[in-house]
Amino acid sequence: MSSLIDRELAVVNVGLDAFADAVAAAGAPVVRVQWSPPADGDPEAVAALARLVADPAVEAANRTAFAAYLEAEPVLEGIALAREAIPGMTERTILHSGPPVAWKDMAGPMQGAVIGAALLEGWAADEAGARALAGRGEIRFAPCHHHDAVGPMAGIVCPSMPVWVVRNARHGNRAYSTLNEGLGKVLRYGANSPEVLDRLRWMADKLAPALAAGLARTGPIELKPLIGRALHMGDEMHNRNVAATGLLLKRLVAGVLRSAIPAHEAAAALEFVVGNDFFFLNPGMAACKCMLDAARGVPGSSMVTTMARNGVEFGIRVSGTGDAWFTAPAPVVDGLFFSGFTRADAARDIGDSAITETAGLGGFAMAAAPAIVQFVGGTPELALANTLEMRHVTVGRNPAFTIPQLGFAGTPAGIDVRKVVDTGIRPVINTGIAHRAPGVGQVGAGLTRAPAACFAKALVALARAA
Length: 466
Prior knowledge:
This protein is of the alpha+beta class. The chain has three domains: 2-35, no CATH class; 43-69 and 295-465, CATH 3.90.1700.10; 74-286, CATH 3.90.1710.10. Helices cover 39% and strands 20% of the residues. The chain contains 17 helices and 17 strands. Helix 6 crosses helix 7, helix 10 (242-258) runs antiparallel to helix 11 and helix 16 (417-423) packs across helix 17. The longest helix is centred in the middle third of the chain and has 25 residues, at 194-218. It starts with a helix and ends with a helix.
C-alpha cells in the first residue's frame, strides 16, 4: 500500500466529469473518457445487447448475410415503364421514399411531389383537384422499398415514369429507380410547375427511349466495377457522382449514336446527361438496393438492409427481422445552405438515398471524396475520420469498393445494430436538404446521423425473435 501511495498518481476517469474535476483540482493528471450507457440506459435494449453482443448464432447469421451482399452482382439491364416493371404497381399507385406515411402526414416536399405526379398522370386538372384526390384516398401510397424500388428525396414513382432495371446476376433479384431529373426545381424536391412536368414528359418520351436504345446495343452494364472505379476518381456515390456519371455516359454514348434514334434526339439526350452530374445517383441507388436485398431475411442477422427517410420519420430494416420498420423522428440536417436560405427553411431529412450508406458508400466512403466537404461542409480530415469511424459499427469491408487514401482498403459495410447500440456511434449520412415547403427545391446539403432509437428498437425486436 505504501508503494502505491508513494507513486505518482495517474487516473483514467470514465463517465461523470465530477470525479475527474476533483482529481484535477488535487493536482493529479487525469484522462477523461467520455462514456454513457448503451441506448441511454434503456433496460430492455441493454438486456438485448448483453444477450446478443457475442452470440455465435448472430455472428454466423451475419456472415451469411454479409456474404450474400458481397457476392451480389448488380447489372444495369434496361429501362422500362414503372407500371410494367415494378411488382405490385397499379394504375393508381404512387411510391414514395422512406417508411410508410399517410397523405395527411407527409412533409411539404413529398406532398408537392405527389401533386405533381397526379397532374403528370392526368388524374387531376389542377393542384386543388390533386389534393382532393389524395385526401379522398383514391391514390394508393406505398414505400418504394415495399416494391423493390428506391427514390431520392421524395422518391415519387408513378405508373408512367420510366425506371432503370437493375438485376442481381448472382441471385436474380431486381431493383428499380427513376431517371434523375437534375438539380433546381424538380419533382423529387416537391416542385410541380408546368416546366417540371414538361421535363418529365420529355424524359419519358425522348430521353428514356434514347438511353434504352443505347443500352440495348452496348448490352448490360456491370455496376460494381463502375462504382469501384468512380471511388478511385473522387466520388462517394451519394452527393458526388461526377465520375460515375461520366463513366456511365462513356458506356452508353456509342450505342445511342449508333441506334435508330434520330440524331437530334440522341444529341438532346446525351446533352442532358452531360449537364447533370447527379445522373448516376439513381441507378447507383438501385445497385445498392439490389446488393442489400440479397442479404434480407437471414434469421438472426443483425445486419441493416435499409435506411430511409420520408421527411417525417427515419426508418431502418434489419435482415433478421424481415420487412419490419424501426423508426424515429427524422432529423433536420446541419450543413451548408445556398444563398438566401438557413436551417429554418429546411425540411426534415428525406429520401431513400441513404441506401448508399447502408451499402458502404456515401458517408461511409467519404475518405475517397475529400472534395465533397465543399458541398456538405466539414474538412477533408473529417471525411477521412468519418470513414474510419464507421469501421466500428460494421460487419466487414467491401473489397469491391476500395479507397486509395486508405491504402485501397475496402469501405466499411454491413451496419450491425448491436455495434451501433454498444458504441453509441450512429451511421453518418451525406445528404441534400430540401426546403420544408413544396416547390422551392434544394436549399443546401450536409451531414447527418441516423437516430439511435431506430437501432435500439431493432435490437430489442431481434432479441425477442431469437
